[in-house]
Amino acid sequence: MSQARSLSIVVPVYNEAENIQPMYEEIRVTCQALARDWELLFVDDGSADRTAALVRELARRDPHVRLVRLKRNYGQTAAMAAGFDLCRGAIVVSLDGDLQNDPADIPRLLAGLDEGYDVVCGWRRRRQDPFWSRRLPSRIANWLVERLTDVHVHDLGCSLKAYRASVIKDVALYGQLHRFIPVMSWLQGARVGEVEVNHRPRRFGRSKYGLRRAWRVLLDMITVKMLTAFASRPVAWFALLSLPSFVCALIAAATMASSADRHPHTSLVISSVALLFSMVGTHLLAIGVLSELFVGTAHRRPRDRHVHIEGSP
Predict the structure, then answer these.
(1) Which pTM does this prediction carry?
(2) What contacts 68, CB < 8 A, 6 or more positions away?
(3) For residues 46-70, b (16+ Cβ closer than 10 Å) or e, as one string?
(4) Between the CA of residue 155 and those of 107, 137, 148, 251, what are the distances in Å?
(5) d(CA 294, CA 288)
(6) Which of 27, 208, 266, 279 has the most crowded Cβ, counting Cβ within 10 A?
(7) What is the DSSP secondary-structure string of 285-310?
């Protein structure tokens, strides 16, 4: 592929046999009109239907198509990470394999990159999903992430995004962090923008997501908050966590001191509680200090005292 304007499209799929052919046709029509070298990577996330066989047949007929197969179902984040690692284009576009994302919106995302952004997110302003099980939890999650970080994006859950390969290949994805790629990219200094995109009702198959993923998303939001606020100073995070323990220890100690004469039989219990809370707080602080030492060592670069620099300062 010619690297300057080359385009890689990454589509994670899991039991989407009915959507493969129409998805391919729509992407092919869109890419042929872009005057760019392009490739299409279908990442099969351990499908149990004919998904892999259909993609393999497309790859045999069209050299633009590549099949990436995971050994089992690892989840959408792992599938996306595999596609990002193996794609060869200078620009990378991701979208879902359920035909709800519209490939015709790809040129709009690329125009956003041309304006100077490093990551351009799709915004499904008129989302065609059930309100209570999909849209409402998504709105709450997006509101929370916007409050926790400085990334102002309306729809983090939209898989239709465009990235510069130099940015997305440096983003470490794990868990369910594919929803937070804009935040992870922003942490590395990327400029993040968004454009409105079309969203269509699902035609074939059924959704792989539901309310049961809300707990995992909440845990990932805590991870993102740690990365955005405390990655460079972990001792601050652990000091914050230890604060309730120390407060409880002080309350227990004060209670013991005030009631020692009146209720001597309870002094041993209260003192044990105070000691327990103080040990928990001290333990958390110690972890913070060790984490601080680890981060400081990891970021320290050896300095060459014999470096010769030429030119104007």
Answers:
(1) 0.74
(2) 41, 42, 43, 44, 82, 83, 86
(3) bbeeebbebbeebbeeeebbbbbeb
(4) 19, 12, 15, 44
(5) 10
(6) 27
(7) HHHHHHHHHHHHHHH-----TT----
Is the Cβ–Cβ distance between 137 and 207 less than 8 Å? no
Residue 34 CA to its chain's centroid (Å): 28
Provide the token pair at 50.
């004919």
Categorize the per-residue pLDDT at 184 as very low, low, confident or very high, splitting at 50, 70 and 90: confident
Strands 91-94 and 7-13 come out as: parallel
Please tell me the distance from the alpha carbon of residue 68 to that of residue 12, in angstroms, as a whole number. Answer: 9
Q: What is the pLDDT of residues 232-288, one digit of tens each?
A: 677 777 888 889 888 988 888 888 777 666 666 677 778 888 889 889 989 988 887
Q: Which residue type is seen at 6?
A: S
- Torsion sign, CA atoms 87, 90, 95, 101: negative
CB atoms within 10 A of CB 32: 11
Which two three-digit tokens encode residue 100?
A: 């709800």
Q: Measured between alpha carbons, how far is 109 from 170 in angstroms, rounded to an integer?
A: 20
What region does 247 belong to: left with phi over 0, alpha with psi -120 to 50, or beta? alpha
| CA 257 to chain CA mean position, Å | 50
- Residue type for position 75: G
| Residue 15 CB contacts under 8 Å (≥ 6 apart), including other chains | 47, 48, 49, 51, 205, 208
C-alpha to C-alpha distance for 92 and 104, rounded to whole angstroms: 15
- Closest Cα partner for 101 from 157, 177, 150, 180? 157
Least confident span in 83-92, 119-128, 161-170, 196-205 = 196-205
